Amino acid sequence: MPAERRAPFALEPLAIRSVCTQSVLEPLMPEGDTLFRIAAALGPALEGARVIALELPRSDRRCDALVGRRIERVEARGKNLLIFFDDGTVLHTHLRMSGAWHLYREGERWKRSEATASAILAVPGYVAVCFRAPIVRLLRASALRGDRLLGGLGPDLLGDGFDAAEALRRLRALDEVPLGVAIMDQRVVAGIGNVYKSELLFRRRLDPFAPVRAYSDEELSAMLDLGRRLLQANVEPRDPSGAYRGPTAHYLHTRTTRAGFDRG
């Protein structure tokens, strides 16, 4: 739906916007807390709703079978967003550096061109649009565990059941890899990108270029614990405006606004 195309109603868009000092940190890969906040904001509009329409403009796959299906939940897994339908289908998106999710009221004018839409999901009252996402696909929930992109993800730092021992085991499996590289490997832990990696290692006074084997289990466990706490701290707004500070005091990484789900 381009600027000229409208759905049935018109209200201000709801959005999560991830912003950075552009000359320094733009473009930026979304971190785990960004996806968590997107899922948390999409959820109330989508969960429990019946699908009116689903289009994947860049895919040959038809989505007619999902019309009328109920959306069970919206979930972030590391840097991935998963939308589960009641027939066992899952819509998987990964924003990488270019993608953005926008949530509009029915009839609201879109902020971006329809030509850049990767997924359009309409439910009663809302239209959720994913723009310029390099990964948009449908798969079966039963196939997630063995999926080449999702099956190998490490413990999610924002997950309720985060397994610290398993995360440490996976990190130790990369003993010869520089710590700064290993901690961003989503097969070790899901959710850490370059910004959190830099802040995390700085706070723990760990050399990103030293191999993992240079550090004790206690040091690595403390690093993982801090990473989890940093991400958790950044999924809730910090002031009445909805803005909140990222892991450093110098950059605003993510904010909730009334202007759409936007990264960058």
From TrEMBL:
<dbReference type="InterPro" id="IPR012319">
    <property type="entry name" value="FPG_cat"/>
</dbReference>
<keyword id="KW-0234">DNA repair</keyword>
<feature type="domain" description="Formamidopyrimidine-DNA glycosylase catalytic">
    <location>
        <begin position="30"/>
        <end position="119"/>
    </location>
</feature>
<dbReference type="InterPro" id="IPR010979">
    <property type="entry name" value="Ribosomal_uS13-like_H2TH"/>
</dbReference>
<keyword id="KW-0456">Lyase</keyword>
<keyword id="KW-0238">DNA-binding</keyword>
<keyword id="KW-0326">Glycosidase</keyword>
<dbReference type="GO" id="GO:0003684">
    <property type="term" value="F:damaged DNA binding"/>
</dbReference>
<dbReference type="InterPro" id="IPR015886">
    <property type="entry name" value="H2TH_FPG"/>
</dbReference>
<dbReference type="GO" id="GO:0140078">
    <property type="term" value="F:class I DNA-(apurinic or apyrimidinic site) endonuclease activity"/>
</dbReference>
<keyword id="KW-0511">Multifunctional enzyme</keyword>
<protein>
    <recommendedName>
        <fullName>DNA-(apurinic or apyrimidinic site) lyase</fullName>
        <ecNumber>4.2.99.18</ecNumber>
    </recommendedName>
</protein>
<keyword id="KW-0227">DNA damage</keyword>
<dbReference type="Pfam" id="PF01149">
    <property type="entry name" value="Fapy_DNA_glyco"/>
</dbReference>
<keyword id="KW-0378">Hydrolase</keyword>
<comment type="similarity">
    <text>Belongs to the FPG family.</text>
</comment>
<dbReference type="GO" id="GO:0000703">
    <property type="term" value="F:oxidized pyrimidine nucleobase lesion DNA N-glycosylase activity"/>
</dbReference>
<dbReference type="GO" id="GO:0008270">
    <property type="term" value="F:zinc ion binding"/>
</dbReference>
<dbReference type="Pfam" id="PF06831">
    <property type="entry name" value="H2TH"/>
</dbReference>
<dbReference type="GO" id="GO:0006284">
    <property type="term" value="P:base-excision repair"/>
</dbReference>
<dbReference type="InterPro" id="IPR035937">
    <property type="entry name" value="FPG_N"/>
</dbReference>
<dbReference type="InterPro" id="IPR044090">
    <property type="entry name" value="Nei2_N"/>
</dbReference>
